[in-house]
């Protein structure tokens, strides 16, 4: 008999099967964390690797925005060069210039051995439509990354809620196992008294011993599953597995039922995924505008100031002239024909925008499906929880009445064995219904954007 239901712990155990999750926990821990569900979520926001990386994406986008902003500022640079003419260039000059024979030439080397140049240049964009669109898109880009971080945090939060409260409910599971063992131990003691007085068989005692051993084995397995569940929760939170974690919140049937679980006033904008898709559409619109503005003229201003000197020897710090030169240029670039590439980029950006709009519409359908499914599952889980709780109470009452009949000699061993089996089955179903109700509640809150 599996009170917890192995399938309910499968995904928790899967989280624990990470390379480091198999490490044994020390009994003496340096750090003990006593966390409510909110404290566990807050801890995960600071320490979960996925959340930390999403926050780094925001910072990376901030630096990208600084690049875009920087392109609108003046660009100033300095340069310098030093030239050594190992062999001066030779020119042929008519000899008659120097009184020589006409038709002949003299070889003359022009220039000096050393030359140096230094200067400063500046450029400033006066008008560029693509740059201006990039400047306008900066805020939306930051919001886009921040929304992605919120989506990551919400996914982690949902999993933490499920694991946290399943571990809280596991205490009820252990309590039921302990109560069953206490009942069987008392029944075994009473049966032994009856056996000593000749009113029971040794086989009856042996059957109870087997049942107690089975329950003890089951409790050991459940405790191991719970231990793995704690490891999985620590992994989700980003907590070192060797640190101790104590869960302080409690949970009962009424808490699972309480809350605003009505989707009547739901609006798509309550979902972070929808907000994220909406920002994606805005960015796609910016992209279309950027490519459109690439077809209009751009205007920029460039200027420079240089000084140069020439020497026959390497001596630029002593006497000698440095000659200055400067100029300013106003550049107007008018696109006339680009081989239709600009039109192709605009068309491609528009198609990408249509894809973003289609994805948002598809998201609406998925959200509707999630809400309806979660609503159905939650309603079914609550109904099952109520039914299984009443059934467990009835099974316990049947067991107590059967036990009394057995003790006074009007009942049979097979009857009390069957009553015990029915009780354990009812308890199993109740625990499973608790787990199902927790998951259904979390899924519904997440689907309606209320988690």
Features:
alpha+beta; Outer membrane efflux proteins (OEP); 4-stranded antiparallel beta sheet; 10 helices; disordered N terminus
What does this structure look like?
- It is built from ten helices and eight strands.
- The chain is α+β, with helices and mostly antiparallel strands and 451 residues long.
- It has a single domain (6-77, 127-299, 336-447), classed as Up-down Bundle (Outer membrane efflux proteins (OEP)).
- The chain has a four-stranded antiparallel sheet. It has a two-stranded parallel ribbon with strand order 1-6. Strands 3-4 form a two-stranded antiparallel sheet.
- The protein is elongated.
- It starts with 5 loop residues before the first helix and ends with a helix.
Topology readout:
Elements: H1 6-16, E1 32-35, H2 37-47, H3 49-71, E2 75-84, E3 90-94, E4 105-109, E5 114-127, H4 129-136, H5 138-196, H6 202-237, E6 244-247, H7 253-257, H8 272-293, E7 298-311, E8 323-333, H9 341-407, H10 413-447
Parallel strand pairs: 1-6
Antiparallel strand pairs: 2-5, 3-4, 5-7, 7-8
Helix pairs in contact: 1-6, 2-5, 3-5, 4-8, 5-6, 5-8, 5-10, 8-9, 9-10
Order of helical and strand elements: HEHHEEEEHHHEHHEEHH
Helix content: 55-70%
Write out the strand line-up for the largest beta sheet, numbering strands in chain order: 2-5-7-8
Let me know the average pLDDT: 86
- Write down the CATH topology: Outer membrane efflux proteins (OEP)
Strand segment tally: 8
The outline comes out as: elongated
What is the strand content? 5-15%
Number of helices: 10
Q: What kind of sheet is the major sheet?
A: 4 strands, antiparallel
Straight-line distance between termini: 35 Å
CATH superfamily membership, which one?
A: Outer membrane efflux proteins (OEP)
Annotated CATH architecture = Up-down Bundle
**Unreliable stretches, pLDDT < 50, 5 or more residues?**
1-29
- Radius of gyration (Å): 40 Å
Going by helix content, strand content and strand pairing, the class is alpha+beta
Number of domains: 1
CATH classification, class level: Mainly Alpha
């Amino acid at each position: 008999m599996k009170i917890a239901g192995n399938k309910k712990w499968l995904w928790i155990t899967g989280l624990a099967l990470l390379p480091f999750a198999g490490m044994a926990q020390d009994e003496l821990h340096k750090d003990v964390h006593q966390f409510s569900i909110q404290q566990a979520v807050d801890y995960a926001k600071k320490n979960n690797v996925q959340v930390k990386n999403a926050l780094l994406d925001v910072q990376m986008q901030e630096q990208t925005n600084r690049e875009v902003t920087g392109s609108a500022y003046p660009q100033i640079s300095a340069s310098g060069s030093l030239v050594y003419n190992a062999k001066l260039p030779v020119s042929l000059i008519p000899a008659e210039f120097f009184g020589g024979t006409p038709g002949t030439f003299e070889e003359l080397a022009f220039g000096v051995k050393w030359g140096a140049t230094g200067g400063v240049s500046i450029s400033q964009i006066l008008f560029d439509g693509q740059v201006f669109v990039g400047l306008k898109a900066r805020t939306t880009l930051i919001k886009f990354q921040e929304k992605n971080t919120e989506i990551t945090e919400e996914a982690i939060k949902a999993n933490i809620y499920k694991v946290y409260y399943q571990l809280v409910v596991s205490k009820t599971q252990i309590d039921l196992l302990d109560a069953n063992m206490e009942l069987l131990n008392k029944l075994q003691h009473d049966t032994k008294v009856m056996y000593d007085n000749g009113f029971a068989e040794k086989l009856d005692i042996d059957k109870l011993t087997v049942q107690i051993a089975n329950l003890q084995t089951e409790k050991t397995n459940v405790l191991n599953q719970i231990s793995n569940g704690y490891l999985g929760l620590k992994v989700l939170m980003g907590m070192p597995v060797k640190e101790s974690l104590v869960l302080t919140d409690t949970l009962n049937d009424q808490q699972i039922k309480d809350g605003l679980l009505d989707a009547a006033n739901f609006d798509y904008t309550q979902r972070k995924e929808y907000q994220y898709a909406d920002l994606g559409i805005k960015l796609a619109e910016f992209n279309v505008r950027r490519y459109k503005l690439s077809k209009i003229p751009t205007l920029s201003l460039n200027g420079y100031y240089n000084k140069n000197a020439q020497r026959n020897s390497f001596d630029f710090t002593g006497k000698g002239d440095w000659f200055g030169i400067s100029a300013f240029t106003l550049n107007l670039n008018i696109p006339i024909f680009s081989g239709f590439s600009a039109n192709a980029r605009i068309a491609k950006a528009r198609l990408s925008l249509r894809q973003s709009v289609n994805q948002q519409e598809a998201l609406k359908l998925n959200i509707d499906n999630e809400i309806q499914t979660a609503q159905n599952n939650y309603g079914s889980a609550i109904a099952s929880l109520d039914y299984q709780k009443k059934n467990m109470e009835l099974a316990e009452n049947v067991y107590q009445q059967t036990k009394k009949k057995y003790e006074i000699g009007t009942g049979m061993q097979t009857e009390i064995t069957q009553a015990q089996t029915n009780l354990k089955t009812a308890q199993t179903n109740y625990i499973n219904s608790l787990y199902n109700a927790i998951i259904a509640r979390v899924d519904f809150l997440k689907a309606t954007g209320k988690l």
